[in-house]
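Database export, one record per block. Field names are fixed; values are copied verbatim from the stored entry.
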Amino acid sequence: MSPHCDCRYEVLPFRSSEEQAAEIAPPIRLTVTASPKHGIDRSVEYCERLRALGHRVTLHLAARMVTNRAHLDGILERTTAAGIDDIFVVGGDRPEPIGAYCSAGDVLEVLAGHPLRPAAIGVGGYPEGHPLIDDQTLQAALAHKAQLATYMVTQICFDPDVLLGWLAQQRAAGIELPLYAGMTGQVDRRRLLEISVRIGVGPSLRFLRKQRGGAGRLLRGAGDATQRFHDAIAAHRDDPALGIAGFHFFTFNELSATWRWQHERCMHHDRSAADTGTT
């Protein structure tokens, strides 16, 4: 695996992560979420500011937060003007859409022939399923989206065997999109546990409990599990049959700590490669 594989850092559009981004000197790929409370226009504005700092930026385009075609056109005009070349299309967390778009597929259909279509378009994958959508529907949706996108990102996972097994199934089903393995950043462990329960990564939580034993040890051992997950997936980065492009870190605005951790992993890999005479 190349030590400096492609990494993406997901942040929430708040001041704390913007301040951290300003302190990171090399340009990195930042992906910006959209919340039902603040709306997508706030995320677009936030993306513009991150782009002005010199970072490469991806906007999470939540379909259910787009009011109409004119609104979508306006978003694409602003992202294009700011040099934002990547949009990650999701359905969004709103229980009901505010406009005509109900799902990621609805927006992808429009983007397919849009004159301002970005160079990269991402979609989501769910190795452990979705708490509100059955597996058959999820698979059909991914097959449709894969025809209109250029890459996919998985939901948070702690168990590398689950992710690799799911990915092998997708390749067998003809899904060829390059994959960014979704994993947690350097996040407070109690907060991480709460978030994981809410988004439904049950099998991964059971994996952590099995590895460490008990809720208290789970919280203390999640960092080790993160490292094990990272290294297990990284070991398969050069397998062309799997098509793993890199990692997508869910930082929950612990951007600086996550970036430093990944940088140290790369440095460790460089030293190990130098010691063994490999690259």
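Remark 1: The mean pLDDT is 86.
Remark 2: Strands lie at 6-11, 29-32, 56-62, 86-90, 120-125, 151-154, 179-184, 244-250.
End of record.
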